[in-house]
Amino acid sequence: MKIWIDITNAPHVRFFKDIIEYFKNEGEDLIVTGRKFGDIHKLMDMYNIDFESIGGHGVSLEDKLKTSTERLNNLVDFIVGEKIDVALSKHSIELPRVSFGLSIPSLYVLDNEHAQAANKLTLPLCDRLIAPQIIDVWKLLSYGMDPNDLIRYDGTSEIMHFKNFEFNENIFNDLNLDLKFPKTILMRPEPSLASYLDADCRHSVLSPVVETLKKYANILILPRFKEQAEIFEGIENVTILHPPVDTSSIIKKADLVIGAGGTMNREAAILQTPVISCYPGIPLSADKYYINKDLMFRINDTDEIINKALKLLVAPKKHIQINHDNLFKLIVDNVYDLAK
């Protein structure tokens, strides 16, 4: 069986790494494609994933349209002669369109119901869709999805990131971090270049939070791109992390996570590290999943973020049991089923 996996965002590398390893061990023929965007290439190399880099990512709407169209054409040229049995992606714009056009069965994993443009372009073309139960099915139907193609599960996609996770207790020492305070906060800026968020990539909602909390704790910043790193350069007690790094161990080792995005916040919730979400857009249902379980705090007011952070830094950690469905098995089973 020949499987095509398209990886178009950095967190998707961690999502698919164990799936890729599994299919390889089963003797399946794999073709992995990616694009030049964020840390995708570095993470692919970090996890020893063989891939073909095709296309990139635009900034403006015009750039996004042109870049996606060009990537679509190049993917068609690359895939057309490969005799693919089944295609698999998570929020790839191009894979469902190429698969539909070439009559390749496709499995699509979704966790962002607010990505309107992406969902309208892809959901009607997918043969099967896997999405968290907490997402309103009517929202997905509004994008043109066939309800008979939907498979729902209890949990969020980030559970895939930790299937074979081994915690490195010495991660801070391995990174040679100069930590002056006993407490450490990991921060992740907002996804400024995403089509679903109207934000300036040269400013961050985290800036005023950093200015205050740097007096009480070590601040680690994991930027998404160069312009975000420049926002926080030269600030006392602030360390900018340069990917690729073992983010999972950093999250678990940290005393608190403050994130203006989504993936890392949900990873923190799964790892039971206290996390404050200050995402400047409408929160995803995937975030609400952990907010409802008291594993994530949703705050947008700067003063409230700071006050809550100071309280969480001194509060004892409490463990909350959560039981997810087996998303890994769900994906594997559906890939084989579609390839029949």
Structure description:
The protein is built from 14 helices and 13 strands. The chain is an alpha/beta fold. It folds into two domains: 2-154 and 325-338, Rossmann fold (3-Layer(aba) Sandwich), CATH 3.40.50; 171-314, Glycogen Phosphorylase B (Rossmann fold), CATH 3.40.50.2000. It has a seven-stranded parallel sheet, with helices on both faces. Strands 10-9-8-11-12-13 form a six-stranded parallel sheet, with helices on both faces. Helix 2 links the parallel strand 2 and strand 3. The longest helix is centred in the first third of the chain and has 19 residues, at 61-79. The protein is globular, with a radius of gyration of 20 Å.
> What is the CATH T-level topology of the largest domain?
Rossmann fold
What fraction of residues sit in β-strands?
15-25%
Helical proportion, percent range: 25-40%
Uncertain runs: none
Largest sheet: 7 strands, parallel
Overall domain count: 2
* SSE series: EHEHEHEHEHEHEHEHEHEHEHEHEHH
Distance between the termini: 9 Å
Question: How does CATH name the architecture of the largest domain?
Answer: 3-Layer(aba) Sandwich
Let me know the number of strands: 13
For the biggest β-sheet, the strand order reads 3-2-1-4-5-6-7
Q: Helical stretch count?
A: 14
Mean of the pLDDT scores?
92
CATH superfamily of the largest domain: Glycogen Phosphorylase B
Question: Which value, in Å, is the CA radius of gyration?
Answer: 20 Å
